[in-house]
Amino acid sequence: MTRETCIYGSVVSFSCMDIVLEYGAHVKKLGMKLFELLSEALGLNPNHLKDMDCFKGIMLLGHYYPPCPEPELTMGTTKHSDGSFLTVLLQDHIGGGLQILNQDSWIDVPQIPEALVVNFGDLLQLVTNDRFKCVEHKVLANSIGTRVSAACFFRGQEKLYGPIKELLSKDNPSKYRETTFTDYEAYYVAKGLDGNSALQHFKICLS
Fold first, then answer.
1. pLDDT in tens, 171-206
2. What average pLDDT does the structure give for the chain?
């Protein structure tokens, strides 16, 4: 992560900029290792996903959820999956509120001190042709106290991304059309967090 890396969600003062950059550098190393392990899990060369530049575009997004006196009447963040390859989430000591969808049931993600949460994003599902599934999740409001988290999104580069050819076969044809990250992001942002997956827009209709 360089000083030119985009940082959204809150104003980062110069007094903590060095800390943010150092944290970003460590997360990038973690991401590279995760991409190696995921490549091996797919039966590919450890460098396959890294060579696709899945780890080079990183965005840090800060989340701030103030305490809500009636959390049952609101939603922190609605159901969605991330428009990235991977998301590495750092939660504060308050934790709680993050839920993932598993077999039509919402499951709490426990807050574990000094642990990071890793989500698979839409683009990882696209390039692996559904071998790895993105994680649908949401965030609930809480009345305990202010909740702060920082998410690093591995977003890729400006190039065409499509299902990895080594994973395709006659019995497993491509399920998605190729797209650039810019085109994918433009659709993702325009659609908004409406509870529907952006991946449906890029699916190929198979007869």
1. 999 999 999 999 999 999 999 888 888 999 999 976
2. 86
Regarding predicted confidence, which is higher, 4 or 139?
139
Q: Both tokens of residue 32?
A: 């590279």
Q: What is the maximum alpha-carbon separation in the chain?
A: 57
Predicted confidence at residue 78, as pLDDT, reads 84
**Token pair listed for 204:** 């190929």
Which is nearest to 183 in space by CA: 120, 118, 126? 126
The DSSP H or E segment spanning 58 is strand 58-65
List own/partner pairs for 7-13 with CB under 8 A and 24 or more apart: 7/59, 7/60, 7/62, 8/59, 8/60, 8/61, 8/62, 9/60, 9/61, 9/62, 9/63, 9/64, 10/62, 10/64, 12/62
